[in-house]
Amino acid sequence: MSATTELYGWEALPRDVSEVLFRKKRNRDPEPQIVAGTKLPDTPLAQSVLEYAKQELSPETFNHSMRVYHYGKAIQTQQFPDWRFSDETYFLACLLHDIGTTDKNISATKMSFEFYGGILALDLLSKDLHAPIEQAESVAEAIIRHQDIGKSGNITTIGLLIQLATIFDNIGGHKELVHKDTIEDVTKNYPRNKWSSCFAATIRKENGLKPWAHTTALGEDAFPNDVLNNKLMEPYD
After folding, report:
1. pTM of the full predicted structure?
2. Is the four-CA dihedral 2, 142, 161, 47 of positive or negative sign?
């Protein structure tokens, strides 16, 4: 594995999460992993994107993005310690993965929000902030494919991890991967503020504006209903 591949999470993993879980080298019960024990990247690039996300995202979406980072790091650290990527790259992907859902951006294009969000992130990182192109492209790839859930083919390490973390936060998927105390601490630091109803409304808004949207592949009615019926996160909403 080249240094660039490892640094920016370009390793290929099966897109089928069940296969990845079956292949897992060790099975272990999750342990509490609190926010204070998970250091946020503090590079100039990370801080610039953090400020951008705070300005561009709604408070609810910003908190979701931060929860995705912390849940993802708990999953990677405890369950998949052999997955290699820089925390900075994963952090950038988390902060920007829903940039296409803002009121401004969702109505600015006929493209599905993940695809347009990937383009926005690529331009921001490579053109405005002068990030290495391999890193910017890794983030864009993960954003574009973060709802590309299926059984065939492969996906990048960061792409799969952000899938796992967003599914966990949005519908309570793969709840065996994260300890209950982690959920309680993460939601205390980054409250959900009725995220389930907020995100379900965003899904329905995009599907109404764009009946061809990629989100419909998850079930035009089934996906927003799954979000609304997120029993794992219901006590924290």
Report:
1. 0.96
2. positive
